[in-house]
Records
---
Amino acid sequence: MNYNDYEGVMGLEVHAHLLTESKIFCGCSTKFGGEPNSHTCPTCMGLPGALPVLNKKVVDFAIKLGLALHCTINRKSIFARKNYYYPDLPKAYQISQYEEPICSNGYLDIFMNGEKKRIRVLRVHMEEDAGKLVHESTIEASTYSLVDYNRSSVPLLEIVSEPDLSTPEEAVLYLKALRDVLVYLEICDGNMEEGSFRCDANVSVKRKSDTKLGTRTEMKNLNSFRSVEKSLAYEITRQIDLVKQGGTVIQETRLFNVDEGITYSMRGKEEAHDYRYFPDPDLLPLIVDDQWIEEIREGLPELPMAKMERFMTDHGLPRYDAEILVSDKELADYFEETVRLCKEPKTASNWIMTELLRELKNGNISPKDSPLSPAHLAELLSLIKDGTINIKIGKEIFPELYERGISPKELVKEKGLVQISDETAIVAMIDAILAKCPREVEEFRAGKDKLLGFFVGQVMKEARGKANPKLLNELLMGRLKGSG
Ligand code: ADP
Ligand code: MG
Ligand code: ZN
């Protein structure tokens, strides 16, 4: 038996913080950070007698995501109490949805090497987040913990996939695609570092010939795509090694140590909680009617996958370009605005994917804050197209254009960069160079073709980069061959 006889099986549970102004069952602010315990009230602090009132926006967002993921939107769903004790959970239960979630049985398509794979989504449900423990230690007191309830009852959607993922790379693609959908829907900021998008990864292994799934382990709160990929890869190898040696995988929760790249057992199934779920008597069953669903369906924006298809068909972009542009809605918008102005999709895409993205990444700037506007990029592209400047000059001035956010026309004028397209001027420069290099001319004429580049370079240098390259090539060829 070797590794190739086995395969991994993975399913992800994702928690997404919703971009609502207020919490799920009270009017407190959901803002990240803030003075500890300043965004609190009796309800989200779990004081006796306080009653939860469901935030309609949370339901809107859940339906939005359910529709985007092709789920069944259940007309009736139930809020349940998930009971456990922890200091960050003041009621000693979390309000969640259990047996009857708001959305079920959907899917999300991912592309693996250009091939479509459908990942089924088992359920999407609403729940509240817990507070946060802050562990401190000082010289006087040894260690102690403080509780901040600002996060308590911030609304979450939990999205649970079926175990349809077969490799860590697929898991990451699914996560990225899911995050894109949430961001496009404007219901989650997708920020993994701040924890507004986090993932529990379940994984098992089995022999490829087996149909029955193996026992799974679960890794909690992975907060980067890299951690998801690394921890899954580690865990698959660990489990295969174990099984090959005749051991058995036990169902447990494991922790991933980023620095070591290793997972550790955290708690076994025996220590797993019995949450004693039951319907929350303070909240009525949630009833959603067709009209509500239709209203939300009508307001759905174009989703990443649809945008990608459109970029490929309408703008004629290769899938590679479309994928990169669509991976960030702002970048896609930037691209479309540029194309609206310059009507050259592929050229615009090339410049955005290389020059613009490089600058944005260097400064960690998001596309909508780019100092170089789509209008200025379009202007630059038309300066190149109509021959005012050549591509090389365009690339040279790009960083400065970006930096200063000024009009390309102005900069070209300011620096005297207008391309030389005057034949007589170019011929004069060519002749001067040819006269200086009789030996190379002879060699070229004797068949050393690759010297052409040398001549082009020399003339360009003479022209301080401003010669029209196409014209230069033609005239140079004529001069070299013609007078031979
Ligand atoms: P729990 O809350 O107990 O973790 P959930 O139903 O919420 O259970 O989530 C289970 C997750 O584990 C799902 O994403 C599912 O696809 C995945 N899963 C279930 N069985 C397996 C398995 N044998 N191997 C890998 N993943 C699995
Ligand atoms: Mg789980
Ligand atoms: Zn509150």
---
Amino acid sequence: MSGRFAPSPTGPLHLGNLRTALAAWLAARSSGRGFLVRMEDLDRVTSSPLHEQAQLEDLTQLGLDWDGPVVRQSERFDRYRAALTRLDEAGLVYPCYCTRREIRSEIEAAASAPHGLAADGAYPGTCRDLSAGQRAERTAAGRRPALRLRAEGERIVFRDDLVGTVEGLVDDVVLARSDGVPAYNLAVVVDDAVQGVTQVVRGDDLLSSTPRQVHLQRLLGLPTPSYLHVPLVLGPDGARLAKRHGAVTLAELTVGLGRAERDRRVATILSALAVSLGVLDDGEVVEPGELDGLIDRFDVVRLPRAPLAWSELAALLA
Ligand code: GLU
């Protein structure tokens, strides 16, 4: 029984990522669960061991600890392929030759149609019913297919501990990319089950992907964990916080500081994140080494339901 934090090591963690990590750690520890860290480094081009190292150091600096070794998805492709084979044997997988651009223009062309419960960027189903001849034609033209799930427009209802009941339609989600790399939604479902993850706490940008994951869990006979999607931190321009906003990572916020000053700064950052999650009162300070003292204060009821505006976070950091 564990919770987890599963970053992609494609860059430094920013304050929004760190806040989600803290929320996941508090939720796991306060419910007596273990806490795992999994590196979602499926994409070998964008992921790097240097980012992985820096991300783990950031977590440690904030006093977040985890149980057991850090797992890397890049070392577990055989498990994802086994799950893919199982779905294929059940007749639920088909090759898709569409490029991203083709999918985008199809979605745009259909933009006037009502979206209803469909996930962001839902696949319009272009390649679902190609004949053997049409597939052969595309292969002959040198196109390498991605593999997609035949989801039959399944409607999924699940509970989120913060949002309540969520309902969504599952599209024909990618299971393996055209270069053979297993896709995120498949890997996450397999790993959460294999690792005994019973609680998923993550950013609410993934809320619309959760029906896909719940559907895959059911098809593969895997348990569904509890979900808690944490509202994101916004940048000064109101868009989701990102590296480009600048001065948003631990390294950037502590650059050039001497040891003592740096420690104070890290405690301020940690305290700001803790206040924003409702486990610390404004004006209180928590040191990384004292984080255990906040575990009992974690309560979903005190977790804000709205995104955290940059101005609020900046005020806490001042
Ligand atoms: N690796 C994903 C990300 O960094 C998170 C996946 C998850 O928590 O399920 O956005």
